[in-house]
């Protein structure tokens, strides 16, 4: 492996919304990709506080049915058309990866290391984001499209009830994945020199 392989994967990872159920890999291999990321993604103090659930097929569609039901309760009926289309778009994909943070782990770290107590919730969010990126980028390298959603906390109760999620797990994001029915749109980049500086080289 070379660093160029990692760079290529980073460039390949995009928000792909036109997804279908035709995965280029078996579901078991997709699940193994996610599991590998969960095992090897770093976390502050090696806390390993991120929790992940993968949903395929009917279970995935059930998730977005819950989201649609929750949104119908808050979006006026006359304005729900675009929201319904978005939910249908997510359902058309092959699966979803749910990312959680275990508050019990964070609480334990705060008690063990009180000097850093204020930092642990922030560091937990960093770890969760790194897991999201690791899964998303590896799926992209495998030819699987994905887009990251945040319908928490709107769907939290339904998710916890349906998939027996422990009370200490807080849902942070939902990564929708599937076969790529159409590529991502073009992306604009801000000038690198406004975001990146080097000294001493």
From TrEMBL:
GO molecular function, one term: oxidoreductase activity
Domain Nitroreductase: 11-177
Pfam families listed in its UniProt record: Nitroreductase
Any one GO biological process: cellular response to oxidative stress
GO cellular component, one term: cytoplasm
Gene3D superfamilies with a match to the protein in the record: NADH Oxidase
Keywords: Cytoplasm, Oxidoreductase
Compartment(s) where it occurs, according to its Swiss-Prot or TrEMBL record: Cytoplasm
Keyword flag Cytoplasm: yes
InterPro entries tied to this protein: Frm2/Hbn1 (IPR033877), Nitroreductase (IPR029479), Nitroreductase-like (IPR000415)
Record-given protein name: Nitroreductase family
Lineage: Bacteria, Pseudomonadati, Pseudomonadota, Betaproteobacteria, Neisseriales
């Amino acid at each position: 492996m070379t660093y160029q392989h990692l760079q290529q994967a980073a460039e390949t990872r995009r928000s792909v919304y036109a997804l279908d159920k035709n995965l280029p890999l078996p579901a078991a291999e997709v699940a193994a990709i996610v599991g590998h990321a969960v095992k090897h993604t770093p976390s502050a103090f090696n806390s390993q506080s991120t929790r992940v659930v993968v949903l395929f097929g009917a279970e995935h569609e059930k998730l977005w049915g819950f989201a649609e039901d929750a949104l119908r309760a808050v979006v006026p009926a006359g304005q729900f058309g675009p929201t319904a289309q978005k939910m249908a778009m997510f359902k058309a994909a092959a699966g979803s990866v749910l990312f959680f943070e275990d508050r019990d782990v964070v609480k334990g770290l705060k008690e063990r290391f009180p000097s850093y107590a204020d930092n642990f919730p922030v560091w937990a969010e960093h770890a969760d984001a790194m897991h999201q990126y690791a899964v998303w980028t590896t799926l992209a390298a495998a030819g699987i499209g994905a887009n990251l959603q945040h319908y928490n906390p709107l769907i939290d109760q339904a998710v916890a009830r349906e998939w027996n999620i422990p009370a200490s797990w807080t849902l942070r994001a939902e990564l929708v994945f599937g076969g790529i029915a159409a590529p991502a749109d073009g992306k604009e980049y801000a000038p690198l020199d406004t975001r990146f500086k080097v000294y001493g080289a």
